[in-house]
């Protein structure tokens, strides 16, 4: 098994993704929200690259729910923002959710050339690693922020790559080795290191402290969202 990491959405390379399973990561907060939404009963999630696309789908399918953010702010006309705590069972169970975020949904749509695409974060890290058993090529795609590297996504990719290397016989890229080491050195102060990052600070300033605590909690859910025909689903869920 070959394991590599792409540092941000800007680094997404369809050629490198050919034949690979892409694991898209946006710790703060898109993929954490998606995993939580499935845990709370959402039927499927359609990730789109802009609010305009979301509004067009809503016109055609009025029962769809719109969720996400733009520049970490609530999008006027959407039903939900980008806090995982707002994706409660009473609001989303059995429904189709359309999500648009500044970085995560863009990264997902940029990585569609992969053989398979799954969604990961700290909160489902072990489940993702277990799901990848038997694959030949795995690439962790960090969404980053505004085309730039973010500490939290790198730490999460390093965490999962570390779990991969411990569980499977892996050939790991140089960049993946570096992210594994970043995680390993800071494994006991992950949130403290991430708190020095720009995106973390933005959410902290906006008062999203509960979200920040939650999104760094490792492996609390055993589900893995998978892309099928343009929609994320959880099989057998």
Please characterize this protein's 3D structure.
With 237 residues, the protein is α/β, with parallel strands linked by helices. It has one domain (2-227): ComB-like (putative 2-phosphosulfolactate phosphatase), CATH 3.90.1560. The protein contains 11 helices and 10 strands. The strands form 3 sheets. It has a 5-stranded parallel sheet with strand order 6-2-7-1-8, with helices on both faces. β9 and β10 (231-233) form a beta hairpin. α6 crosses α7 and α7 crosses α8 (174-185).
For the record, what CATH class applies? Alpha Beta
CATH superfamily, please?
Answer: ComB-like
Q: Order of strands in the sheet with the most strands?
A: 6-2-7-1-8
What overall geometry do the principal axes of the alpha carbons give?
A: globular
Sheet with most strands: 5 strands, parallel
Q: How many alpha or pi helices?
A: 11
Total beta-strand segments: 10
Overall residue-averaged pLDDT value: 97
Low-confidence stretches: none
Write a concise keyword list for the protein shown above.
237 residues, putative 2-phosphosulfolactate phosphatase, 3-stranded parallel beta sheet, alpha/beta, 5-stranded parallel beta sheet, 11 helices, 38% helix
């Amino acid at each position: 098994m070959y394991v590599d990491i792409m540092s941000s959405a800007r680094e997404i390379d369809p050629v490198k993704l050919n034949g690979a399973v892409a694991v898209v990561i946006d710790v703060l907060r898109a993929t954490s929200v998606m995993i939580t939404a499935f845990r709370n009963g959402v039927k499927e999630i359609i990730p789109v690259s802009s609010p305009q696309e979301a509004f067009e789908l809503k016109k055609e399918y009025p029962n769809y729910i719109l969720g996400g953010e733009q520049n970490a702010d609530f999008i006027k006309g959407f039903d939900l923002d980008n806090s995982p705590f707002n994706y409660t069972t009473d609001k989303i169970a059995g429904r189709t959710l359309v999500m648009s975020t500044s970085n995560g949904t863009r990264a997902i749509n940029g990585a569609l050339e992969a053989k398979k695409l799954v969604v990961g974060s700290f909160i489902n890290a072990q489940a993702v690693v277990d799901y990848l058993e038997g694959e030949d090529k795995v690439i962790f795609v960090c969404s980053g922020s505004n085309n730039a590297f973010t500490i939290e996504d790198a730490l999460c990719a390093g965490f999962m790559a570390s779990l991969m290397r411990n569980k499977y016989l892996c050939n790991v890229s140089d960049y993946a080795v570096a992210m594994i080491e970043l995680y390993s050195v800071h494994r006991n102060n992950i949130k403290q290191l991430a708190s020095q990052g720009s995106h973390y600070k933005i959410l902290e300033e906006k008062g999203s402290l509960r979200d920040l605590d939650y999104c760094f909690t490792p492996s609390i859910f055993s589900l893995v969202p998978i892309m099928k025909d343009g929609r994320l689903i959880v099989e057998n869920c």
